[in-house]
Amino acid sequence: MSRQTPEQRGSFGGLGFILAAAGSAIGLGNIWKFPYIAYENGGGSFVLVYLAAILIIGSPIMVAEVLIGRRTQQSPVGAFLVLAKDVAGGKAWSVIGWLGILAGFFILSYYAVVAGWTVYYFGKCVSWSINGFTAETAAGLGTEFGAFLGNGTQQVFFQALFMGFTMGVVILGVKGGIERTTKFLMPLLMSILVVLALASFRSPGFGEAIGFLFHLGPIDSAGLLEAVGHSFFTLSLGMGAMITYGSYVSRQDSIPRATATICLLDTLIAIMASLIMFTIIFGVPVAERATTFTSRSATILFTTLPRMFYELPGGVLLSPVFYLLVALAALTSTISLLEVVVAYFIDVRGWTRRFATMVVGGLIFLFGVPSALSLGASPALTGLWGRGFFGTVDYLASNWLLPVGGLGIAIFTGWVLSSSVSQDEIETGHGKFGLKPLWMFLLKFVCPLAIGWIIWTVLNGGDFS
Ligand code: TRP
Fold first, then answer.
1. pLDDT tens-place string over residues 406-446
2. The whole model's pTM is what?
3. Which of 117, 234, 242 has most ligand 1 atoms within 8 Å of its beta carbon, as the pocket-test mutant?
4. Which of these, 180, 220, 285, 320, is most buried using a 10 Å CB contact count?
């Protein structure tokens, strides 16, 4: 194993870590997925469970991941090889790292496909705004989106384009690429969101949107499960992404404070995105809602929002801006997914960053091609294994690899890692950490039980994706 100095590995400075980690966390999970699953699960209660899950499951695991990364200065596999040297189980703990690499590989392969759609719709909205909105009916938009999904060449082209952007940033490295990009993108993203939120504040659907988001109605167990599962995905937990980013954190930074900031930003963005979207949805006359906002669909962002945007005052400006924002948010997430896999080959195998990025990025792209083709272009792939190729890869990663990885990280940090090591690391850059007993309690008992419950439910055929 080749150990590099922090100078060789690269490191974050100042706010770099917070922005990069928040960039990883904030992505399609916040803007595309959260609003529609919150909508489907009836709003208020779902949001409340989700907030609780972030607080008592997500944030302690994030602290654990960042701590493992900074302590060892390694990405996941290497980190467990270092920390688990003299403990029960020994090197076997590095399996968690391997699962993480596999999860990163899987998630990025299809995430880049959806991210490609946002670039395509950005272009489309620019053209609609200039030439006039042509897809007047929701049916028209749906047909158009369907045709786009069925066009294999376009699907693969935009997937490749997005992988290209991602690889470009990762090749430039931690400071030059990741930190510089997120430093500029994150504030931009927040500003655009605030503008959109202010715009919705004055729109007709706003009151109803607020009511929906905060009204506590009944919630079923599938909804509960989905909220807990999503808290993992949205914070980028369970696969060592935060171990990898943690390995670039300076010893002057406080891990608990950084974690709190990241969780807060991630949550704020998800809530803001939902408010913006619900305002648009509720701004449409009731009679038309049933036909425009159809049931469970991962495509709402593309099939119903554009039309609603063009009905809003200012929509001509807002719609391209909005899709640009989603594309940028996706980019800061894909960077982190690729970085986990690339960092393994740099840290453990001693490859150069450029070579590792080209090889790994190329392979992930190839593995993603069947996903890109499985949404309409190739009927054989659409029906494969019941869920289709895309659906199967997502299912394996989100419902298996992430929860199992998160469970491993919680158990390792709570039960196996020596308490003096975690105490020392958590107080480095922070000072005395009064919440340590609470943090330990959550890691030791609450997280394993909650995650165990997710895994148990998935094992028994309940689905939460
Ligand atoms: N958190 C991102 C989102 O919400 C997705 C993501 C990026 C992710 N890196 C990850 C999810 C690592 C799980 C693990 O869109």
1. 999 999 999 988 888 888 888 888 888 788 889 999 999 99
2. 0.88
3. 234
4. 320
